[in-house]
Amino acid sequence: MFAIAFAANPSYRGVEYSVRLLAGVAIVDVARRMDSAAVRRVCIVLAAAGAIESVLAVAQSIHGRGFALYPIDHDGGLLAFGDTHAGRGGFAHPYHLTVFLLLALFAALIGGRSSTGRELRLWVGTTSFLGAGIAVTFSRAMILGLVPAAVLWCLARRDRIGRSARPIVGALFLGLACTSLLFADGWTTRARQSAGSGADRGRVTLAEHGLGIAADHPFAGIGPARYVIAVAEESLPEVELLPPHNIIVQAAAELGAAGGVIVALAGLWFARRLLRRPVLLIGGAGLLVPFLLLDAYPYVFPAGLAISALWIGLLENPTVREHAS
User: Which residue ranges does the record assign to the O-antigen ligase-related domain (predicted)?
Assistant: First the structure.
């Protein structure tokens, strides 16, 4: 369907996105072939990078803007929720940071699976920083993925989840809770937005418009990676120049109805496979799902695609599966 949609609607963006997808496939392949030593190194790097990004994000929230520490950070205002600003670390948007920090959490759970003593304390301490960073992104999609995963991990028998999972998850929520209290106005504002009569109307409008485009172009779609371009060409003031924030709707709009069906079926197939995996991996995969259904970062942006590819590679890695059992 990708080739048919591209042939019917050729564009340089389609070529660019094809290269990104191929790079993502390469990352998945490399990640799933890593041995135990390589997996451990990757997990350490991800967790450490996540902790550093978290410190930067909290500092940004306190400062109220970026620090212009290029290439680590760049100047500019931050999203405001009430009187609080959402930190974004070295990313362009706070929700992009959220996705990376959740991957870092998953990596910490894998890397610290059988840790004890001083090593476990290092994993626990690192994860508390991740919780602090997640708190200042004010992401509601994060809650939809993290809370069920945490419940699943904490209710699992110790011999199935490992002795380190509960301390690591506990440290994450401790960091999240303490930082949320410091920036309580932001979370209070997000709660009011969720409870309001127009809650998430923006996302509903985006999805409805995406379905409308899919209905107008049912056979070959509008072409890969052309969604925002097509919306701009319509010049509709009531529709934001944003993707539909749902991977299935975007696939249906860009690749045609069959493309949306294929993506949905692929997701169900992957979920069915995951249900036979260790509890640690089921929860780890669940962290990403809300961002696939309610956001665009994991499958539209280059860094998001790379993060998703590494995530899938870890889920499919035989060493990780054996270690998580």
Answer: 129-263
Count the helices and strands in the chain (H runs, E runs). Answer: 18, 2
Tokens at 175, concatenated: 């960091």
Please give the C-alpha separations between residue 255 and each of 107, 154, 268, 289, 324, in angstroms, as whole numbers. Answer: 33, 40, 19, 21, 37
In terms of Cα–Cα distance, which of 114, 106, 118, 115 is closest to 172?
Answer: 106
Q: How far apart are CA 241 and CA 223, in angstroms?
A: 17
pLDDT, mean of each 10-residue run, the chain (325 residues): 84 93 96 95 96 97 88 85 92 95 96 84 95 96 95 79 84 96 92 68 82 91 90 74 91 94 95 90 95 94 96 94 81
Q: Which of 237, 321, 233 has its CA nearest to residue 278?
A: 321
Q: Which residue has the tokens 């991977």?
A: 247
Q: Spell out the residues 6+ positions from residue 213 whose beta carbon is closer than 8 angstroms to its own.
A: 222, 227, 230, 231, 253
Exposure string of 243-260, with b = 16+ CB inside 10 Å and e = fewer, is: bbbbbbbbbbbbbbbbbb
**What global pTM score does this model have?**
0.93
Give me 83's structure tokens.
Answer: 């009187």
> What's the CA gap between 287 and 294, in Å, rounded?
12
Q: What angle do CA 137, 253, 243 make, to 5 degrees?
A: 20
Segments making up each domain of the chain, as ranges: 35-196
